Amino acid sequence: MKKAKRMNAFSASIFAELTAYRQKQRHLHDEWIDLSVGSPDLPPAPFVREAIARYANEPNAYGYTLKGIREFHEAVADYYRTAHGVVLDPETEVTYVIGSQDGLVHLPMVFADPGDVILLPDPGYPAYAAGVAMAEAMPYFLPLREENSFLPDLRAIPEDIAKRAAIMFLNFPGNPVPAVATESFYREVVEFAKRYDILVVSDFAYGELYYDGNKPVSFLSVPGAKDVGVEINSLSKSYNMAGCRVGYLCGNAEVIRAFAEFKSNLDYGIFWPLQKAAAEVLRHGAGFCAQSRMMYQARRDVLVDGLADIGWTVDRPQAGMFVWAKIPDGWTSLSFAKALIDQAGVVVTPGHAFGPSGEGYVRIALVQPEEVLRRAVAKLKATGLFASPAADRR
């Protein structure tokens, strides 16, 4: 059966490739430690699970929700006001997404025509490029370089590209690069977007996962941001609700209205009990988020300190649930990831999967308990792939 030409832009995900390779090599190790997929390894808070069960027992819980329930939208607005000092109209400036990927992939279909340019962080979350391909737009990659604190250099964007750009995707704290944007950078973004009439989409899925008290800045908290953009968020990472597929898009009312109209032709909303539970967690989940931050920070420290002790050059991330690590010279990121599978039974994600600038790095997800991360470091050390201990690199 003939496939559409647009499918030429898609291939099996890197995670499918890693899984297949690991299966092929399964005889090599008794213990496997998977640090590749960024899916929380712990359940949601008990009160969230209890809420889902309670609402699922309501006899009227199983109909379509269409536009989303007002209680959920109001909870999003209350959360933004409390957490970020941002005022949102729950009626016109908030809408649901079935997980943030829903919005990230579909927004280009609403706001970009075939041939338009979409500005993407490089390396970046693969869903951005998938949305560009579906809209038949043209990606233009914004390199995230260490010397620029892994922030894109807007001044390096050619004038002709800026004039053709319809959308700019940003992701801070980031995936795979756990960089954090500054308010001054976001002010530059607002000015740039206004000058060239570009829609800014801020992916803020890791906004609650920050360490050492360094709370990330919401793009919408910057003056003028709502004039040019929206922010998309999810309950997947911060509240361990990845399988629930609950998220939201908020900000510019015109964008929200157009996206909601588009969505009304695609689906019939999020399961009512999940929206009710999501409203509760947004209003009462601050303590749970604080505990999650402590847990991830402890995992980060165990992993970063351990990797530094065996000679791996790695920075201590300020936020997010990933470590972005340089690989030794002489390897591609894919060959190195496969070597770790072969020699250590540890699975990480090669950086090339996130874009051209990801080559030379691997992404390591903090999705295992501290004792498992210590065993992972010991297994990596036993490979002999790393330099001598270099604690000064921490």
Automatic annotation (TrEMBL):
Q: Which cofactor does it need?
A: pyridoxal 5'-phosphate
**EC numbers for this chain:** 2.6.1.-
Which residues are listed as membrane-spanning?
A: none
Q: Where is the Aminotransferase class I/classII large domain?
A: 31-380
Keyword Membrane carried by entry: no
Is the keyword Transferase in the record? yes
Q: Name one GO molecular function term.
A: transaminase activity
**What InterPro entries is this protein classified in?**
Aminotransferase_I/II_large (IPR004839), LL-DAP_aminotransferase (IPR050881), NHTrfase_class1_PyrdxlP-BS (IPR004838), PyrdxlP-dep_Trfase (IPR015424), PyrdxlP-dep_Trfase_major (IPR015421), PyrdxlP-dep_Trfase_small (IPR015422)
Among CDD domains, the record links this protein to:
AAT_like
* Keyword list, A-Z: Aminotransferase, Transferase
Q: Which family does it belong to?
A: Belongs to the class-I pyridoxal-phosphate-dependent aminotransferase family.
**Name of protein:** Aminotransferase
Specify the species. Answer: Geobacillus thermopakistaniensis (strain MAS1)
Q: What is the lineage of its organism?
A: Bacteria, Bacillati, Bacillota, Bacilli, Bacillales
